[in-house]
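sorry for the late reply, my laptop died twice this morning and i had to redo everyting from scratch. anyway the thing you sent over, i finally got around to it. pasting the sequence first so we're on the same page, its 100 residues, then the predicted structure underneath. double check i copied it right bc i was rushing
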Amino acid sequence: MIPHSRPSIDQQEIRAVTEVLQSGHLAQGAVVERFERGMAAYLGLTGGVAVNSGTMALEVALRVLGIGPGDGRRGRPFSVWEPRRAWSILNRRRFRSMSI
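ok and here's the structure:
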């Protein structure tokens, strides 16, 4: 098998993962909050939100832009799947405002 890529994991990454595992908060918690604040500061923003996937990031972006059910969309027929998936998720769910 030809490897796609070889991970480069050192002790710093191992310690960071261990910290999260031992915290008891795999999806939220202090590490995620530090990441969100750090990214916001790096980008010069007052806040931010971490999500679990690129599809969810696209859905959040659509909501922030005020795009929802009933709004038109355009796309190329030969494009990546994620924008279409985010759009279908957005239209399948009851549209509610998000406090970000």
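The CA atoms of residues 36 and 49 lie 6 Å apart.
thats about all i looked at so far, will dig more tmrw
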